[in-house]
Amino acid sequence: MSESLNLHLDPGPGALVYSIYEGLSPQKLDAVLVSHCHPDHYTDAEVLIEAMTHGMTQRRGVLVADKSVLSGSTACGPSISKYHQRMTEQTIEAVPGMKFHLSNINVSVTEAKHTDPDAVGFRFTTSEFGDFAYTSDTEYFQDIGTYYEGVRLLMLCVMRPTGKPWKGHMSTDDAIRIIEETHPERAVLTHLGMQMLLRGPEKEAKLIEERTGVVTTAGVDGMQISFGKAIGVGFHNKRKKHGLDMFL
Ligand SMILES: [Zn+2]
Ligand SMILES: [Zn+2]
Q1: Which residues contact 91 (CB under 8 A, 6 or more apart)?
Q2: Which of 35, 122, 189, 192 has the fewest other C-beta atoms within 10 Å?
Q3: How much is the average pLDDT of 160-188?
Q4: Can you tell me the mean pLDDT for 165-189?
Q5: Residue 168: nearest ligand to its CA?
Q6: What's the maximum distance between 2 C-alpha atoms anywhere in the chain?
Q7: Counting Cβ atoms within 10 Å, is residue 215 exposed (0-12), middle (13-18) or buried (19+)?
Q8: b (16+ CB within 10 A) / e for 94-119
Q9: In what side-by-side order are the strands of the sheet with 231-235?
């Protein structure tokens, strides 16, 4: 959320209900972004498009999604109906390397290596406060760091704890490599799987912090991140006048 833009990234199950629970109006959305065609990332996309278009009464907002979400592929999808795709003002098929802007934020599409071969991540550039990014579901690969060099805030989908690698996904060890390569001001771990939850995400965050020297936070539902001159993490704060706010 910012003064000029409200976007929802990867609306999985509960996105609508939890948005309302947090006091965020889905009718004020300007964009819905879906990184790939797995249900934990797309199930509420159509519902949020209904809200964004004010009950499908106006063509409003932007939908950004990978190819499989929009058109389907041999792996999966499509995950958003043509009926919903037609109701937005603009639909953008996100391909790695592509750049576009949403209001005053420049977006670069990053590469992800995942079981949806079209999966992408996103990097957001603000004029005043620099960059933040979201890796989406991906495994570590050579050059992944180049997509996130210079970001201040890096949100990583870290499904597995240290010592438990899983193809197509990131473990704590992979996150350490990416953070070492990119040195953000702060890292946030999200998309935590059962093994991660049982191990204790705070402990894993602390391990990353010790190894990399980068302040690392394990995401919790409802957590709010404020992104301005400083990067703050808290719960149910008032929205700041300057900068952006993100809810997990
Ligand atoms: Zn996935
Ligand atoms: Zn996922």
Answers
A1: 62, 63, 64, 65, 70, 85
A2: 192
A3: 98
A4: 98
A5: 1
A6: 52
A7: middle
A8: beeeeeeebeebebbbbbbebebebb
A9: 231-235, 223-227, 244-247
| Whether the predicted pLDDT of 238 surpasses 80 | no
What pLDDT, on the 0 to 100 scale, is given for residue 243? Answer: 82
Average pLDDT score, the chain: 96
* Distance in angstroms (rounded) separating the CA atoms of residues 157 and 152: 17
Distance 3 CA to ligand 1 centre (A): 31
pLDDT at res. 242:
74
What is the token pair recorded at 67?
A: 């190819």
Q: How far is the CA of 53 from the centre of ligand 2 (A)?
A: 26
Distance 113 CA to ligand 2 centre (A): 12
Residue with tokens 């603000």: 126
At residue 121, the 3 state secondary structure works out as strand
H/E element, 36: none
pLDDT at 215 over 70: yes
Indicate whether this model's pTM tops 0.85.
yes
